[in-house]
Structure formats: C-alpha cells, structure tokens
Amino acid sequence: RVQTDTQVAPGTAVARLTGLEAGQAYGYRVLVDGRAQDVALSFRTHARWQFRQGVHAPETRVMLSSCTYINEPARDRDGTPYGGDYEIFGAMAQAKPDLTVWMGDNVYYRENDYTSAEGMAYRWRHDRALPELQALLRTGRHVATWDDHDFGPNDANSSFSLKGAALDIFKRQWANRSWGLPEVPGVFGSFMESDIEFFLLDGRYHRDSDRDRDNPDKTMLGAGQMRWLKNALLASTATFKVIVSGSQVLNDPQRFEGWHNFRAERDGFLKWLQDQGIRGVMIASGDRHHTELLRLPRAGTYPLHELTCSPTTAGAGRNAKPEHPALHVAGTFVNQRNFCTLDVAGTRGQRTLTLKSWDIKGKELWSQVLREQD
After folding, report:
1. Over residues 124-142, mean pLDDT
2. Of these four, 6, 166, 188, 258, which has the most CB atoms within 10 Å of its CB?
3. In Å, how far from its chain's centre is CA 173?
4. Can the peptide bond before residue 81 be classed as cis, meaning omega within 30 degrees of 0?
C-alpha cells in the first residue's frame, strides 16, 4: 500500500509513486468509491545494467503508433466514417510491448473541440473510453508527442491561440518523464528504454507556417528546442538514438506538411549530425497515413534511416506507391492500417534493432534489421 499525492484533472488522475526498487514487478488495483475494480494491473521498473561487467542491456520491444481516429457520429463529418478496425488495439496488446511511443495525431480534435479547453478535454475522455483500447493501455509503458490533430486544428502552428491549454491537457494524458524545458515550453524530451534513447520532438508549439514562402529562416522546432536536441544527442551514451517527429523528415517530394518545408533548419541539422559523427541515429515519424522505411546515404558514414509508421485507425492514405523512390527501401511501403515495432537484442557491441510492420490482426508485413556495427 503506497500513499500518493493525486492531482485530479478533467477525466484523469496522476499518482506519483516513491520507494520503488529497480528491476521489480509490482501489482496494483484501483478502487472507485471504495470498490476494487475487477482488472489485474501491474508494471515493472527498469533494471540496473549500466556499468556492470558481464551484464548486457535488456532485450526490449518498443511499439510505434500514429494517427488514431475514433469515430463519434454525432460530431463527425458527413460520409463514410474515417476511423475503423479497432481490433488493431488487441493485436498491439498481444504484441506485448515494453513501451508504446505514440507519435502524434493520437486523437483527432473535431471543429467544435479545439475552440475550447473543455472541448479538447472531452475528446480525450471520449476516445480513451473505447473498450477495444483498454487492454493496450494496460500493457507496458506509454509516452507521446503530438502532431496537428492532438494539438489543435488541421496543420496548426505556433499561432494557435489555445496552445497553452492544449499543452496542459496533453500533459495530463501521458506519463512522459519530462515536458520541454523551464525556459522552453513544449512536449519535447528524451528518455532511455534499455540501451535505446528516444528524443521526442515538438513540431507544433514553436512552428512557423509551412506555407510561408518568404522566410528562409522559418522554423519547425525553434532555436531553444534545436539547442536542446543537439546537446542531448551529444550527451547520449545510447547504442541506438531514435529521433521521434510527428512530421516526416526526409521525404522531399511529398506535397504536404513536413520538415522538408523548413529546408534551412532541417538541412542544417542533418549536416550537423553528420559533421559531429553522432553514432546510432535513426528517425521515427508518423502523420502520413502510410508506412515506409527511407534510407538516406551519407558520404563517409552510415546511412540515415527514417521509419514512418501510420495510420493506426485513421483512414489509410491514397498513395499507391512511394513518393521518394531514391530513398525508399524496397518492400516496406504499407498502404493500410498498421503498427510498427522496434526490437532491441544482442550482446554488447553487437546489438541489433529489428524494425517490423504489422497489420490489424498482428500479421507481420515486413522486417528490416539495423546492426550496431553498421
């Protein structure tokens, strides 16, 4: 029995536990009005393995999800429902991830949601109550960054007047270790899972308009977040370093939103990444309503991979083939609802990162392996 401080917010409660031991499993139960709920709940704390001779980093499975649309006929647009195949959440739970990284568009605010904080809070309560989602929410740990639809209106940027309220509401929904910096608000931050470190980007709070053609210095991340990202990557000792972006990064030909619309910022960062010789970096992104693996060759160093994984339950995109054949890894284009996993395994110095895409029933669609020594 643990005494907790509980902060009650619309539809959520936050409990911070202390006195936990490393590498231990804990069971717990939830009481509502004094009555225990008939659901078995548990979690396991991280084991200590760093700086211990002969002890390898634990094997771990990380799941990626993006573009989760839950229908609500009373508030949806006319026509065919945009969301569906909710059975995918059961397949995701059956995959038994240690961690799920939600990469943006984790809910879709409707037009009458993002006009008020109450409307945005309502959307989270509605979607989180979906019965098919419950098993997944009870499986492993969950962290998230956002994209436009769980930040505000479609293609929203830093001009969204309710972005402060959106940030407060988003922070109540997820157990991220940190949120931005004291001097730079946002949802960005980093954390370790075994020997893989994730760098969650915030591509919305400080974003200029993608459509601004007259400003070569326009930014998706902002100077403060970019400074944090570079310093965090330099400080990282992780075997694999995964930069998580709600917007796609390497896909230049696409006509929609993406970091390609901020060429000076993006290309400057990619050059810095190569010049610094940062090891073990890959990119994970969502947003595009299809899945694919991109591979950017880089002279004198390893190629940079970007795994775009989308959608989970939103409508699949209309693209029938990859937009960037020069970077596309053959056999990885998926134009249907799916989710992805990252499996880290192997001994020190020979770790592998296995990328997979799965369909709504949990059938493997493709697999690719990245090796530490490469």
Report:
1. 95
2. 188
3. 14
4. no
